[in-house]
Design a protein that fits this description.
globular, Growth Hormone, Chain: A, 2 domains, mainly alpha
């Protein structure tokens, strides 16, 4: 216990500041995202297919941008500058949601916001390492992630309170979301110091044909399984739409995101530690099975209780799979190409996320919500079959 306390005592002030930057920006983003799908359809007249396209472009853009942001920060030697640009883009988009009169303005704001997320992620994480002594590095990343997760809870909770205060006026909630976004940028500007870094002129592009050819068959198999799984994991916006579809009051819809994120945060840490002892595949396969169960519940249990059970299962599957897939990439890629491996894995995942949400929206529009979630279960079953076949080898 004393050893753990001393490790957290070594976490620098700048890392705590970065954690609160993440917390404030997550509050700002989740206040909007917990209501955005309903706002698009009820206030701006968007179809479910268009919601899927907007969400797919947003999530795909963030994943694809991450591939290059770390490389650029190495080349420039300016982690804080890139993080400021990324968080700044996230902050300046918030007023656009509040004044939008067509879905296409929301699309533009979502795109710019996700570019900002992609730009800031890798430089911020590298800055944590730059600021922290080796002995406290694990504690430092734990602090930043824990504060980020708190923001994911507080954002939807504040949205619920403000929806009650403003009689379900979603635009009023979006205006308030500007405040924590600006606080995040201000705290980063004054609370975190840039660590002097010499530009890495030898830094290579994160993806080259030569390096991709050296990654090896195990990595490519994991990437293929991950790509199919990403096709099954369409945007959580469809959980929000399903909640409204079964009659959850608009002001309480953000509870769905709270339930999902609570389970995700509780499960992720212990599952990651357990996988170090019992192996990744033995836990990843049940994670895929839990997503199948979540999709079937959301498809077939068409009431408020069913949506909450589905959201809890969705959060559990994320806790069981997201960290383990990243660990499998690290396990299967050659040591000197791990950066390239993660870059390519993010790229493939981003493209798959875009396709998944577009297809999910089109199915919802043409055949209803049941078709969307059943399709997700089918894609997950395909990914699970591939995983089990590879594991048996």
């Amino acid at each position: 216990m004393q050893k753990r306390a001393s490790a957290y005592g070594l976490v620098p002030r700048g890392v705590w500041a970065l954690g609160f930057v993440s917390l404030f920006m997550d509050i700002s983003s989740e206040m909007i995202h917990a209501l955005l799908p309903i706002f698009l359809m009820s206030s701006l007249g968007a179809s479910a297919a268009l919601v899927g396209l907007i969400e797919g472009i947003g999530e795909g853009t963030a994943s694809i941008t991450k591939v290059f942001s770390g490389y650029i920060s190495d080349r420039l030697g300016k982690r804080k500058l890139l993080a400021l640009i990324g968080y700044g883009l996230g902050a300046v988009t918030k007023p656009i949601f509040a004044v939008a009169v067509t879905p296409f303005e929301v699309l533009a704001a979502r795109f710019i916001d996700r570019v900002g997320k992609g730009i800031r992620g890798a430089p911020r994480d590298a800055l944590v390492a730059d600021l922290t002594p080796q002995a406290a590095r694990g504690a430092a990343y734990g602090v930043r992630q824990a504060l980020d997760t708190v923001g994911a809870f507080l954002g939807p909770a504040l949205a619920i309170a403000l929806m009650w205060l403003y009689a379900n006026d979603m635009r009023a909630v979006f205006w308030w979301a500007i405040v924590p976004g600006l606080l995040a940028v201000a705290l980063l500007l004054i609370g975190v110091e840039e660590v002097a870094q010499a530009p890495a002129t030898s830094a290579r592009s994160p993806i080259t044909l030569r390096s991709l050819g050296e990654l090896g068959a195990p990595f490519w198999i994991v990437s293929a399984i991950g790509a199919v799984f990403a096709l099954a994991r369409f945007s959580e916006a469809f959980l929000v739409l399903r909640a409204q579809n079964v009659g959850v009051p608009i002001a309480l819809v953000p509870l769905i995101m709270i339930a999902m994120n609570v389970i995700y945060s509780v499960a992720a840490g212990p599952i990651g530690a357990l996988s170090d002892r019992v192996g990744r595949y033995g836990l990843l396969a049940p994670g895929f099975a839990v997503l199948i169960a979540a999709d079937l519940v959301l498809a077939l249990w068409g009431n408020v209780a069913g949506v909450f059970v589905g959201a809890v299962l969705w959060g559990l599957h994320m806790g069981l799979t997201q960290g383990l897939l990243a660990a499998l990439v690290a396990d299967t890629a050659p040591t000197h190409l791990r950066g390239t491996a993660f870059g390519f894995f993010n790229l493939v995942g981003g493209v798959a996320a875009l396709l998944a949400s577009v297809v999910a929206g089109a199915l919802w529009e043409a055949f209803g919500p049941q078709a969307t979630f059943i399709a997700g279960a089918i894609f997950t079953a395909i990914a699970l079959a591939g995983l089990l076949a590879y594991r048996s080898r």
